[in-house]
Design brief:
The protein is of the alpha/beta class. Helices cover 41% and strands 21% of the residues. The strands form two sheets. It has an eight-stranded parallel barrel with strand order 1-2-3-4-5-6-7-8, surrounded by six helices. A two-stranded antiparallel ribbon has the order 9-10. Helix 1 links the parallel strand 1 (2-5) and strand 2. Helix 1 (11-20) runs parallel beside helix 8 (211-233), helix 2 (38-45) packs across helix 3 and helix 7 (184-191) packs parallel to helix 8.
Length: 234
């Protein structure tokens, strides 16, 4: 189970997430109470182990801006929110891969309850040109109005379950949106995602992590994944 703690704004919060067992930490470079600067993030990422992925969150950003931020902040991954056409996504992916050391590219698909449209969006992403070491990774967040993510509201996991299970073999799906230490076990059991992502669900105030809740979230996620693996083996 891949676990990302997003909305990191301080070295202290990043270290707590890493020491608790997070696979990745996320930094928001878009309008948000958790917005950070590339220079500020560089001061954090240089203190973290190389085994932890450092992912920048972007909304409708150009390929040039993404590349520049990756280089300055020493990122190892990017998360793309916004209205990117398949052609534009291909261009952005190529531009990033050409100019930055290998990075994980996470595409965000908002879910609003329309499972048919959700499935079509995943199928479109699955058709992108990739290699064996560059898989398609998709983060599924909740669509609320015109917001592209970060609402802190769960989507209908049961309604999305069939699409999650159908695409599990071809796409690495990350569940996000309203997750917290109390409900992440149910989310994992329902959708069986490749990974989970949390931000507001482990905060004391926007932009500041509650260290105890970060630890609880990671522990609950690992336990749920282990329970599922053991159930399959029985």
């Amino acid at each position: 189970m891949w676990i990302k703690i997003c909305g990191i704004t301080s070295l202290e919060d990043a270290k707590v997430a890493v020491h608790a067992g997070a696979d990745a930490v996320g930094f928001v470079f878009a309008a948000s109470p958790r917005r950070v600067t590339p220079e500020g993030v560089r001061g954090i990422t240089k203190e973290l182990p190389s085994s932890v992925q450092k992912i920048g969150v972007f909304v409708d950003a150009s390929a040039d801006d993404i590349v520049a931020t990756c280089e300055t902040a020493r990122l190892t991954g990017v998360q793309l929110h916004g209205e990117y056409s398949p052609a534009h996504l291909t261009q952005v992916r190529m531009r990033i891969k050409e100019n930055v050391l290998p990075v994980l590219i996470v595409h965000v698909v908002p879910y609003d309850g329309d499972s048919a449209r959700f499935a079509r969006q995943l199928q479109s992403l699955a058709a992108l040109p990739v290699t064996a070491d560059d898989p398609i990774v998709v983060l599924v967040d909740t669509r609320v109005g015109d917001k592209v993510g970060g609402t802190g509201i769960p989507f209908d996991w049961a309604a999305a379950q069939d699409v999650f299970l159908r695409h599990a073999g071809s796409i690495r799906l990350i569940a996000a949106g309203g997750l917290d230490p109390e409900n992440v076990r149910q989310a994992i059991q329902t959708m069986r995602p490749w990974g989970v992502d949390v931000s507001s669900g482990v905060e004391s105030i926007p932009g500041r992590k509650d260290h105890q809740r970060v630890k609880q979230f990671i522990r609950a996620s690992r336990t749920a994944a282990l329970e599922f693996a053991e159930a399959i083996q029985r």
